[in-house]
Amino acid sequence: MGFSRYVEVGRVVFINHGPDAGKIATVIDIVDQNKCLVDGPEEITGVSRQVVSYRKIALTDLTVKIQRNARAKTLKAAWKEGDTLAKWEGSSWAKKLEAKKKRSNLSDFDRFKVMVAKKQKSRIIAQKIKELKA
Amino acid sequence: MPKFVLVMLTRVLGTAGPKKAAKAAAATTGKSARYYPADDVSRPKHSRAKKHNPPKIRPSFTPGTVCILLAGRFRGKRVVCLKALESGLLLVTGPYKINGVPLRRVNQAYVIGTSTKIDVSGVDVSNIDDAYFARTASASSEGEEEFFANDAAKPAVVSDTRKADQKKVDASILKVVESTPLMKNYLGSKFSLTKYDRPHSMIF
Predict the structure, then answer these.
(1) CB within 8 Å: B204 and A108
(2) Which of A67, A116, B29, B160 has the greatest number of CB atoms lying within 10 Å of its CB?
(3) What is the CATH number of domain A1-90?
(4) Which chain A residue has the Cα nearest residue B113?
């Protein structure tokens, strides 16, 4: 199998560097082999129209149906149409990011509770395995 | 009068200065001074001694904050902060019943305040201040002969008042602690860092 994610107009990308790090955006146009023009759309993802280097983005599986150099309004409509934000949030990538964020915001007491829950979980698993082996 | 004579006069008479003396006299009687005082007036020396400002307590320490001790024999223990004392030290307790940390003072520099809070409004520690923890004179008065006697060290004796105070404080805190699930286990456990724990980016 070859590549399935291409740098193309309409490709949804994840920005992993700079002030917009952690947000997603859509490729609007290809500038050259180093950078492309992206737009959030700003109302949905908070990324304004700008040129970014490919090094600062990661391609996702999602695409939206837009023309090259689409206006913000058209882009927004395309996102609404394809339900792109919900698709992104449902992806395991987004879920992992969410979980990571949640973990890093835990207090000391919360971490203790997680530790206790983990112990309980592994205890149950160990018990079940023991039963299955017997 | 020539200037040097005036300067000499002020030195001999010990006033602040010719101009000042004249001014002071004029302010009181409405006239210029009629005579200089015969004796030297003693004036306090200018002191450069630093004044101690009240200590600043980090905002993360409020009564009821669960803290992590970082130094001393109780390092790693999670304790409850009861109040800040006048000296700037924090008054903490384990509670003793849960993790063995008695009512004691700790320097806030060696403590991490967590965001976890316990309601300690029902705990009365108004009688405990810095003087409460002062050493008694006899505690360290081991004579020279005793020092060299090579006998077993005397065990530290905890006074009955302290024991009673600890019991009283523990009783009221324990009630609150047991109302929160897992809180008792949390206070009883020690804090430690493991692999991939980065304390600078952790939220407490």
Answers:
(1) yes
(2) A116
(3) 2.30.30.30
(4) A108
